[in-house]
Amino acid sequence: MFGIPVDLTDFKSKITIEDCAQALGAKVNGVPVGLQGNVGIYSFYATKLITSGGQCGMLVCKDKSLVDKVKDYREFDYRQDRKYRFNFQMTDLQAAIGRE
User: Fold this and answer.
1) What mean pLDDT value characterizes the chain?
2) pLDDT > 90? residue 65
3) Fewer Cβ atoms within 10 A, N terminus or C terminus of the chain?
């Protein structure tokens, strides 16, 4: 809609986070946005292309170890290992709206 995807070929040596909130379905040189850099993020806020009835989002990444670290960061489960974690999980209602 308002997203203008950029070719990130020149930035391969840099760590890149793609903001794909308004570029859902876009491709650059046949590669879906979000998969050119290290991480792609999508916002599901009410003004975005996809909404879930609140402030939610999605992360895409080809590096499973990085995805595992992000999941550990957002899983607020009272583990006693002194790592910072936050409850960034969407509610069941937001998940249901997002699925529909």
Assistant:
1) 82
2) yes
3) C
**pTM listed for this prediction:** 0.71
* Residue (of 23, 15, 56, 57) closest to 39 by Cα position: 15
The CA–CA distances, whole Å, from 54 to 47, 62, 64, 81, 85 equal 10, 27, 27, 30, 21
Using pLDDT thresholds of 50, 70 and 90, give the confidence band for residue 40: very high
CA distances for 80 relative to 16, 56, 65, 75, 83, angstroms: 32, 27, 22, 13, 8
